[in-house]
Specification:
globular; homodimer; 4-stranded mixed sheet; 4-stranded antiparallel sheet
């Protein structure tokens, strides 16, 4: 038994060293859980400062530590109920749980995973002002672990290209290979995208071009598209739905775009023709088989 | 006559306010010249600290101001001879000079434009540590002005898409429209690219998809791909030639990629099949017509 618990940053540094040994393994889940507990403990001592939300139907606050302010937190999605995590760990460790996390539905999973991600991000915002890399890497650990657990296969981050006289390794986002004559998942993970999102479609285009259309299912997972003006304390969502439609028509086809905090402007793209399929990330756990056939 | 000359940063701020009025106009050239003179004057008082170059055949130094160090400067390309600029301004203002800048060749132009860009970048490195945006925007002013002057047309930065029931404006890099049944140039401008370069091919793909292949000539202009380890004072070039070939085969075709400080690893791509056409930027001034037919 540990005498002094690790801080969430120490959990993160341990993840950095050990994560790749077995991405889907339970050791990673345990470390993610530790960091969630530690982040909640850190945040519980702080004030929740209301922000002015310019996002219709959503309420945001920030954790404040004196003059320092965290990023925006969606009040309806965030829960500091650690019992949710304990139940999740228990459900995951149950036999055959991959096809149905007992007691969980998509909404409950989306809220829990959002809370794990955003609590660590806010903790880092307050202890390392301006550090975007640590929250981004933690979010990659969280999502790629859950994806790997759900698909029961570990990812790779580069792929061999053999093309006539060319032979090279192409660095990629996470690739999950389900085996011969089954789909491969192409998983980019971003805390937010803005105008950089075109990279996701471009990488999908390269995979389609090199290996053939529809062999890789592009399923990016994004945390949020909020932007906070920390002086005026105003939260907005930066969305480019018309551009997304053009990318989907002219660069490549993404199979799903998953969000933890789904922007309303993108949610609407599910209901225009041709649709983009934009879903809360919790739904992935219940549709992974349906995507794979 | 001005009593107190503006600082290069004041020249830049004036450019920000007035640049768009007439991108190709001589007022912009004059302000760029003022900032070059001011940057050279600022740098002339500083030490040139040799860097350890891990780039074969290239020597780099940095300007140092006490403990502060500028970005790497290619010693063979940099010249603080302001007479070069004076001659350039004179050549530009000569009648019919667009088809032949008298007394200038591609190498001399590449060195001069490199010197204008890098001297302003080093000035900002030393007065605003960590500011990447100001050098990037200045470089956009410099290159888009010269491009506009050479093509004798001002650029736009967004383009209307009409596609069945869709109607939207797509934000773009600089687009130069030479008119009906003539090419349009698509000009991305970057101080360096690294892994973000895939965006350039992706934007070209969108233009090809929306308007038809080969209607837009993609001609990005890039300053350098050097990276400096400021503690160990080592300069390297970050190049991904195998990936560039895959992008050119599978995303879209770029017509030219121009560099001010051309990386050797990319220069070689001119001589493999299928080639990528990677040239020193000075060559653009002599091949603009050949590209346009």
């Amino acid at each position: 038994m540990r005498v002094v618990p690790r801080t969430p940053l120490e959990d993160y540094n341990l993840l950095r060293r050990t994560f790749g040994r077995d991405v889907k393994g339970s050791a990673n889940l345990a470390l993610i859980g530790d960091s969630f507990r530690g982040s909640l403990a850190f945040l519980s001592a702080l004030n929740r400062e209301p922000l002015i939300s310019q996002v219709a139907g959503k309420t945001y606050f920030a954790f404040s530590d004196g003059a320092k302010l965290s990023r925006a937190v969606n009040a309806a999605l965030f829960s500091d109920d650690i019992a949710q995590w304990t139940a999740f760990e228990k459900a995951i460790n149950r036999r055959n749980s991959r096809q149905g996390l007992k007691g969980f539905n998509a909404n409950r999973l989306t809220r829990l995973i959002y809370s794990v991600a955003i609590s660590f991000c806010c903790y880092i915002d307050l202890i390392h002002k301006g550090d975007q890399k640590t929250p981004g890497t933690f979010f990659e650990f969280l999502i790629s672990h859950l994806f790997a657990w759900r698909l029961d296969v570990n990812p790779v981050k580069s792929i061999q290209v053999l093309n006539l006289d060319m032979e090279t390794y192409l660095p990629t986002d996470f690739i999950f290979d389900l085996g011969k004559e089954r789909p491969k998942f192409h998983l980019p993970v971003k805390t937010s995208t803005r105008e950089r999102v075109i990279q996701v479609w471009a990488h999908q285009r390269v995979l389609d071009g090199v290996f053939g259309t529809a062999r890789f299912l592009g399923t990016p997972v994004i945390l949020t598209e909020t932007k906070t003006d920390s002086v005026r304390k105003i939260v907005t969502e930066i969305c480019l739905p018309a551009q997304w439609r053009i990318y989907q028509m002219h660069i490549a086809q993404l199979k799903r775009i998953y969000y933890l905090d789904m922007p309303a402007a993108y949610e609407k793209l599910n209901r225009v023709f041709p649709p983009l399929h934009i879903r809360p990330f919790g739904e992935f756990f219940f549709e992974a088989e349906a995507l794979s056939v």
